Here is the input.
Amino acid sequence: MHAVAGLDLNVYEGDVFGFLGPNGAGKSTTIRMLMTLIFPTAGEIKLFGKDIYKERKYILSRVGAIVEKPDFYGYLSAYKNLEILARTSGYPVTKKRIMEILEMVGLDKRYKSKVKTFSHGMKQRLGIAQALIHDPQLIILDEPTTGLDPQGMKEIRELVISLSKDHKKTIFLSSHILYEVEMIANRMVIINKGQTVIEGSVNELLDATEARVNIEVDDPQKAVQLIGETNFNGKIDSVTGNTVILFAHKSDIAPINKKLVENGLAVSSIVPTRSLEEYFLNLTEKVE
Amino acid sequence: MTGLVGIELYKIFRKWRTYIGFITIAVIVLVIEISMLIEGENYLRFLTRNLSSIFVFEGNFLNGYVMSYLVMGALAIHIPFLITLVSGDLLAGEATAGTYRMLITRPITRMQLLTAKVIAATIYTNLMVAFLGFISLGLGVVLFGTGELIVIKDVLFIFSQDDILWRFFIAYGIASLSMMVVTSMAFFFSSLVENAIGPIVSTMAVIIVFYILSNINVELLQSLKPYMFTTYMQSWNIVFTDPVEMSELWNAVLVQSIHIVFFLGLTFYLFRKKDITS
Here is the structure.
C-alpha cells in the first residue's frame, strides 16, 4: 500500500489552492516529498515542470514552505532566525528586507525577542515569514492554523489572503479544515489514500452540491408549507424553534426567500452553513 | 560554503553547551597547575624517585613545558567526552529542535549542509585542542617559567628548550586528529537519531568499550588493537621521543585518518537519502 500514488496536482500561478484530505490521506507525505524531505519509493516528482531531484536548487529557490509546525532556533531572535535561513538559501538578505517581512507578519516589534518566548501563533507567523524571506513564487503551507485559537486562525487566514492579493504569491494550502479552504481558496483538490478524489474550482465544486440552509422566520410551519410549493430540488430536514433547516442548492435560496417575503413572513436570517465536511465525506465514501 | 560554515559556527557558539568544554578545560588546567605550584616539588620527587640514585637533577625541571606535557597526558582521554557535547548535537540537535525541516527545504544540497557542519565541527574540535595547548602552556610558563622538558618513558628523555616548542606544535596537531576521530564518530551517530543525547552517550560508550577491549590481554583482542582508534588516542606522545619514531607516527596518522574518512563517508552516504520525518 502506498501513502501517495499517481497524484497529479494542477496549481496555477496566482492560485490559492486548497489541498484537502482527512488525517492519513497523504497530505503531509505529499508536501514532504515536494520539499525533498522524504523520497518516493518509485516514480518522479515535478514542480514548475522540472524534476524535483534533478533541479532541486532551482525549484526550492522558488518555493517557501511551512512543513507541519514551524520550528526555529529558540535561543536566537526572530530577526536572527530569518537572517540565518535567508543566508542558508543564498539569498542576499538585508536588514530592511527582514524588517519588511517581519512587519508583514506583524512581528516587527518583537524582532529582538528570542523565539523561545513566542506563542504558537507567533511562531506560525514567523513560519510564514521564513517561507517568504527568499521571495519565492510559491508558498506551501501545511495546516498553518492547526493549534491556533480563533483569533489566531483569523489572522493567519487574513495573512494568506493578503499574500495572494497584495503580494501576488501562489499559495498551496494544506488543510483538513474545509471551511478554511472555502473561505480562502479559489481552487482545491480533495485527496484520500494518496489519490485525487476531486479537483477544481471551489465555487463550482461547492455550488454543484446542496448546502445545509438555516432559515429563521416568524412562522416556521407556514414557511415549510411555502417552501414545499417552490420548485427547489432539495429537502426539508427539520424545524427547530423558529428555524427551518433544509438542504438546498445555492440557486434555490433566492426563490425561497422571495416566496417567504411575498407571503408576508418575516425572514430574520438565511444562513447557508455549507457543510464541506458532508460534501467531503460523501466523496470519500464513494471512493471507498 | 564560507557563508554556511559561518552560520554553523554562529549556531555552535550561541549555545551554552559549547562553552562547557572550554570552561571545564580552563578549570582543570587551573586546578592542576596551582596544585603543582603548591606541591609540585613532592610530585617531581615521586616521579624521579627511581632515578635520583643515578642522576643528580639541577635546574628548573618543574617548568611550563613539563606542566603542559602533564596536563595533556591527563586530559587527552577526557577531552573526547567534552567534544561529543557539541559534535553529537550537530545533526541530532536540528532534528530535536525541528529545524531540520527548515534547513533541508532551503535551496542547498544536503551535501553542502553536511560539509558546512563538518567544517564547523573541525574548527570547533581544533579550537578546543588549541585552547588546551594555549592555556596549559601559557599558564604553565607564567606560573613556572621555562626550562628543559623531562619525559620519562621506558627511557629518560631530556629536551632542551630550543627542542621543545615544535614538538608541542606537532603533538597538538596529532591530538587534534585523534579528537577528529571522536568528532566524526559523534557526527555519524548524530545523523542516525533525532535526539542529541543518543550520539553523545553512544560515542562515549564506544570509546570506553574500545579502551576496555584494548586492555584485555587476550590474543584475539590484542590482534585487533592496531586497528582500534583508541590505541592512537595518546599518539601525540610519539613526538616526545628522540629520535621521533616516524613510522609509528605515520601509522597513527593513517589509521586515524581512515577512521575519520570512514565515519564521515558513511554519514554522507546515509544522509544523502535519509527521510526527514522529525
The radius of gyration of chain A is 23 Å. Residues 209-287 of chain A form a domain with the Alpha-Beta Plaits fold (CATH 3.30.70.250). The longest helix of chain A spans residues 150-165. The interface with chain B takes residues 32, 35-39, 56-61, 63, 65, 67-76, 84-85, 87-90, 130, 134 of chain A (CB under 8 Å).
